[in-house]
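Q: Please design a sequence for this.
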């Protein structure tokens, strides 16, 4: 479904190099790695926010040939930084043509409030609700647990495990990553270090024993 081959992308002072990566339809993948390892750069590349060399194919079609409008039909996403205008929550959802079919994150009581009136945790719940209620086949979530209380972190991860979508998620909470995910992409210095997570690899990447999180 998603296939990367010899991909180079990024910025003047930092680039990612992805030699080969395949993510099959329906997989739920946790993207792990220390700060600055290239996780967000990879996500921005997949969302056509950064130019790239090499090949990225989505459903056998080269990503460069897919318009941004067409991409939003396949993929909904959440990035770490987003501008929050002074509009009501229900307007924010309507602009993305999203109906609140599943109020997993309990935002129905916020619909008539303006985004700039909300706390950081409430805004995150609204943004996530827009992403998870879309009809897209793929969810790409960059640090979705940020600003969420533990109650909503667990609710969100339980829900993501139940739905029939391909999910790519960056996550810093190793304990939650190990509890809720079986497939991993582990990055270091702009490259994929491993797709396996064991004691040896974990210590190479994070410098501590995985036993601390089990």
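A: Design:
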């Amino acid at each position: 479904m998603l296939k990367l081959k010899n991909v180079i992308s990024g910025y003047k002072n930092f680039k990612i190099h992805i030699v080969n990566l395949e993510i099959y339809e329906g997989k739920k993948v946790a993207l792990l790695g220390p700060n600055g390892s290239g996780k967000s750069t990879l996500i921005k590349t997949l969302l056509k926010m950064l130019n790239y060399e090499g090949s990225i194919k989505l459903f056998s079609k080269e990503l460069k040939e897919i318009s941004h409008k067409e991409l939003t039909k396949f993929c909904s996403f959440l990035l770490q930084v987003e501008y929050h205008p002074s509009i009501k929550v229900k307007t924010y959802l309507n602009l993305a043509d999203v109906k609140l079919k599943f109020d997993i994150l309990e935002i129905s009581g916020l619909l008539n409030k303006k985004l700039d009136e909300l706390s950081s945790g409430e805004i995150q719940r609204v943004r996530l609700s827009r992403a998870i209620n879309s009809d897209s086949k793929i969810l790409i979530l960059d640090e979705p647990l940020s600003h969420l209380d533990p109650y909503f972190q667990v609710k969100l991860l339980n829900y993501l495990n139940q739905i029939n979508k391909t999910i790519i998620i960056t996550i810093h909470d190793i304990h939650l990553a190990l509890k809720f995910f079986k497939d991993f992409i582990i990055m270091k210095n702009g490259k994929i270090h491993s797709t396996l997570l064991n004691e040896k690899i974990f210590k190479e990447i994070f410098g501590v024993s995985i036993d601390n999180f089990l």
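Q: Thanks. Anything notable?
A: Strands lie at 2-11, 14-23, 28-32, 52-58, 61-62, 75-78, 138-142, 166-170, 183-188, 191-194. DSSP finds seven helices and ten strands in the chain.
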